[in-house]
């Protein structure tokens, strides 16, 4: 039995339409290649620089990074309100980068990430979609410096071929840091929150190494407020970064970059280490 011309057109449309949609959805996303461990396969990512908060001369007094971020809670120009998320205007978007998270298949999937400052507690970090939710990882100054040191050690181990393909403790090879998580169903509403430990390490996926950030499920403090309408704890979180992505994250969360976001020209007062 012959297929009519109309049926042929319908059949072709049914076959081509998903392909066209798939191509269109990936058109504007730069695909990040995994690092090769047998040769230097460092890649690069372009970051979109969003408008900064610019302070007046009176607001440029020397202060800690935490104090400076908190002081940005008072709007200094129209950009801050425009680029603040709907989380009670606490999270201010400053830049963007990319990373990998565990996808539904269990393999790393590339995601866009944003750099955000929390003007309520003075922390800084990143946010990205994670499975069916959106998570923000926020760090204080000490944690950001621990992250920078961990990435430095990872790059050294990578270049000097000290990474181990097998082992149960690779996910905490470079220690841990205190973080605050904020999460919700969408980026502009992340009422769930809690504090916990995030481990700094690495793992091999499909024979390629990645710098990793991992934390076990943490208690949701928002559950104490609203009860069973919220989850009792977060998901278990694991982020993957190529060498270039890890370096980009450290740069975007550095004191110099935060000062640039906030329009600060005077250096931050360093936070003194604890004495024991």
Please, could you describe this protein's structure?
The protein has 276 residues and is α+β, with helices and mostly antiparallel strands. Helices cover 27% and strands 26% of the residues. It has an eight-stranded antiparallel beta barrel. Strand 1 (91-102) and strand 2 form a beta hairpin. Residues 5-27 and 39-51 have low confidence and may be disordered.
Quick overview:
The radius of gyration is 21 Å and the shape is globular.
Shape: globular
Please describe the biggest sheet, giving its number of strands, its sense, and whether it closes into a barrel.
Answer: 8 strands, antiparallel, barrel
Q: What spatial order of strands do you see in the largest sheet?
A: 1-2-3-4-5-6-7-8
Number of helices: 7
Category from helices, strands and their pairing: alpha+beta
Overall mean confidence score, pLDDT: 79
Distance between the termini: 87 Å
Query: Would you list the SSEs in sequence order as H and E?
Result: HHHEEEEHEEEHEHH
Q: Hey, roughly how much beta strand do the residues contain? A: 25-35%
> What is the count of β-strands?
8
Helix content: 25-40%
């Amino acid at each position: 039995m012959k297929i009519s011309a109309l049926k042929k057109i319908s059949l072709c449309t049914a076959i081509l339409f998903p392909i066209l949609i798939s191509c269109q959805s990936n058109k504007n996303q730069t695909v990040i290649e995994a690092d090769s461990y047998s040769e230097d396969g460092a890649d690069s990512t372009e970051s979109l620089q969003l408008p900064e908060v610019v302070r007046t001369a009176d607001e440029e007094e020397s202060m800690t990074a935490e104090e400076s971020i908190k002081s940005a809670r008072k709007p200094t120009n129209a950009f801050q309100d425009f680029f603040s998320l709907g989380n009670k205007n606490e999270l201010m978007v400053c830049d963007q980068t990319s990373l990998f998270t565990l996808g539904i298949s269990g393999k790393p999937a590339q995601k866009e990430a944003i750099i955000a400052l929390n003007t309520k507690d003075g922390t800084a970090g990143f946010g990205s979609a994670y499975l069916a939710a959106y998570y923000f990882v926020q760090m204080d100054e000490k944690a950001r410096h621990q992250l920078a040191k961990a990435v430095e050690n990872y790059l050294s181990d990578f270049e000097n071929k000290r990474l181990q393909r097998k082992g149960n403790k690779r996910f905490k090879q470079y220690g841990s840091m205190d973080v605050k998580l904020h999460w919700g169903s969408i980026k502009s509403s992340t009422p769930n929150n809690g504090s916990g430990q995030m481990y700094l390490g690495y793992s091999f996926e499909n024979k390629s190494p990645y710098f990793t950030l991992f934390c076990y499920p943490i208690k949701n403090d928002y559950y104490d407020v609203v009860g069973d309408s919220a989850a009792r704890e977060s998901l278990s979180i694991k982020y993957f970064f190529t060498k270039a992505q890890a370096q980009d994250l450290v740069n975007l969360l550095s004191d110099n970059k935060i000062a640039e976001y906030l329009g600060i020209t005077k250096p931050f007062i360093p936070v003194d280490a604890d004495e024991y």
